[in-house]
Amino acid sequence: MSQTAPDSDLPARILVVEDDPGMRTLLVRALQADGYRVRGVQDGREMWGALAASPADLIVLDVMLPGTNGLDLCRALRRGGVPGIEAGQLDRHTPVIMVSARGEELDRVLGLELGADDYVAKPFSQKELLARVRAVLRRGGGGVTEVQSSAPRRETLKFAGWTLDLRRRELTDPSGAVVDISGAEYDLLASFLDNPQRVIGRDRLLELSRTRLGDVSDRSIDVLVSRLRRKLGNDSEALIRTVRGLGYIFTSPVERL
């Protein structure tokens, strides 16, 4: 079954970055069998070359790579790439799924801090990986997504001078400037805006975020809240307050247009 985009008949493009030849072949074949267009490379140098030659809608990125590791590659991507690649050749918002044999929470949290959209620990089943890929492509803020069963709601939310366009998945600050926001940050903000001026417990936030982040934890939610606060800048502490022992509250009223 081909996984296509809303505005294209072509399958989504996935770049697999994995140094182990056997694992790389396994991942590429599994994703191809699910209908995606897939390329496989072995390290960061080849990753940048592949992205410069042709964009990807999702990167499956191993953490333990020779040379530059996956965490540093994710950080570089989010910052706009590396010298020698012209501006416009890379989309720094391309969704990333980190893959690692090290499943410690510290690695997961660090990956999320650096802007990864999901984190899968080896060993994992092909079914789990494909489910994560579909979820990130379906809900990701950048890249080609799967066909939706219905069109996104044409709706705009306003709060404290900010605007969240649910159709475009776009956040605008009070000055009118568009603020870069990842898919995970968008999901978290949308959850807050759906429940304004009420305490949302961590358990509820875990439930809301689990489709994107998989086996998340309290610490993972705290990381996402911290990332979202940074995007909201000087307004963040007033807008998202920590309620000790309970969770978080979004303090601003929300207007739906």
In the CATH hierarchy, the architecture of the largest domain is 3-Layer(aba) Sandwich
Strand residue percentage: 15-25%
From the N-terminal CA to the C-terminal CA, the straight-line distance is: 37 Å
The counted number of beta strands is 15
- Give the number of helices: 9
pLDDT averaged residue by residue: 80
What structural class should be given to the helix and strand makeup?
Answer: alpha/beta
H and E string: EEEHEHEHEHEHEEEEHEHHHEEE
Number of domains: 2
Rg, Å, rounded: 18 Å
Q: Could you estimate the helical fraction of the residues in percent?
A: 25-40%
Summarize this structure briefly.
The protein is 38% helix and 22% strand.
Key traits:
cytoplasm; 15 strands; DNA-binding; WalR-like; 257 residues; 5-stranded antiparallel beta sheet; Arc Repressor Mutant, subunit A; OmpR/PhoB-type_DNA-bd; 2 domains
Q: How would you describe the overall organization of this protein?
A:
This protein is of the alpha/beta class and 257 residues long. The protein has two domains: 4-139, Response regulator (Rossmann fold); 156-256, Arc Repressor Mutant, subunit A, CATH 1.10.10.10. The protein is 38% helix and 22% strand. The chain has nine helices and 15 strands. It has helices at residues 21-33, 44-53, 70-78, 105-113, 126-139, 183-194, 202-213, 218-232, 236-239; strands at 4-5, 8-11, 13-17, 37-41, 58-62, 96-100, 118-121, 156-159, 162-165, 170-172, 178-179, 199-201, 240-243, 247-250, 255-256. Strands 4-3-5-6-7 form a five-stranded parallel beta sheet, sandwiched between helices. Helix 4 (105-113) links the parallel strand 6 (96-100) and strand 7. Helix 6 runs antiparallel to helix 7 (202-213) and helix 6 (183-194) crosses helix 8. The N and C termini lie far apart (37 Å). The relative contact order is 0.11. Mean pLDDT is 80; it is low at 4-9, 141-154 and 211-215. One of its GO terms (cellular component) is cytosol. Residues 154-252 bind DNA. It is found in: Cytoplasm. Residues 13-137 form the Response regulatory domain. InterPro entries: CheY-like_superfamily, OmpR/PhoB-type_DNA-bd, Sig_transdc_resp-reg_C-effctor, Sig_transdc_resp-reg_receiver, WalR-like, WH-like_DNA-bd_sf.
